[in-house]
C-alpha cells in the first residue's frame, strides 16, 4: 500500500553558519514531526547576532530567481512559514508568493521578527513594521512576541499589561487580517503568559508559565516550528501552543548549564522531547 503523501512545508527564514537559529532549528524539528521541509533563505548569516560581530548576505536576488524557477517547475506547498525578512523588496516578494500559493489552499504562518524586550532589532524601521503588517494580513496564524504585537497593533510598548489591554492588542492584530493570533512573552499584571486568540470572535486565553532565567537565541524559532507542526496535525491552535510550551520548557531546562549559550540549543539532540502528544 502506498504511503500517504507527506505534508510539504516551505520555510522562508535566514540561515546562520554558526549557531542554531532560524532554518537550522526549524528544519530538524519539522522533519522529526514527519513533514517534508523545503527552504528559501532570506539571508546567510555568519553566526548568531548575540556574539556582537557578524556578517549578513542579503539573498533577495537569489530568492527572486529561485521563485521564477519554482513557478516554471510548478512546485507548490501545503504550508509556508515566514520568519526574518531583510528588506521591503524581499517582503513584497514573499507577500506576493504567499498570496499566490494561498489561492491553492496553502496555509500561511508568520513570525513577524522585528524586536524584543521593548526594543526594535538593529535596522528595523517604521517601514519594516508597515511591510510586516501586510504579510500578517494574509496569515492563518501569526506568532509575535509582545513587543512585536505592540509594533503591529500600534500600541504603546510597556513592561506589563492588563488583560483588557491584551484583548485590545489581539483584536487589532485580527483587524490586520490574521485569522489566529499567538502572542508570546506577555507580562500581564506581573506574571508571564502566552496569549492565544484563535479567531476574531473568541476571547484571549492566557497560558501562564514560569520564566526561566536564561537566554538562548533561536528559542522563538523552535517554538514557531513546533506550533506549526502540531497545528498542521491537530488543527487546533490552543492545544498546539499548550503542547509546544510543555515540550520547549523541557528542552530549555535540559540546556540550562550550556557554557556558550550564544550558540543556541543543539536541537537535534533533543528531538525526542517533541512529539504528537495531545494537550
UniProtKB/TrEMBL annotation:
Stretches assigned to the Pyridoxamine kinase/Phosphomethylpyrimidine kinase domain: 75-256
MF annotations from Gene Ontology: pyridoxal kinase activity
Q: What class of enzyme is it?
A: transferase
The keyword ATP-binding is assigned to this record = yes
Name the source's superkingdom. Bacteria
For whether the record's keyword set contains tRNA-binding, the answer is no
Keywords in alphabetical order: ATP-binding, Kinase, Nucleotide-binding, Transferase
Q: InterPro entries given for it? A: PM/HMP-P_kinase-1, PyrdxlKinase, Ribokinase-like
The EC designation for this entry is 2.7.1.35
**Would you tell me the protein name for this molecule?**
pyridoxal kinase
| Species for this entry | Blautia caecimuris
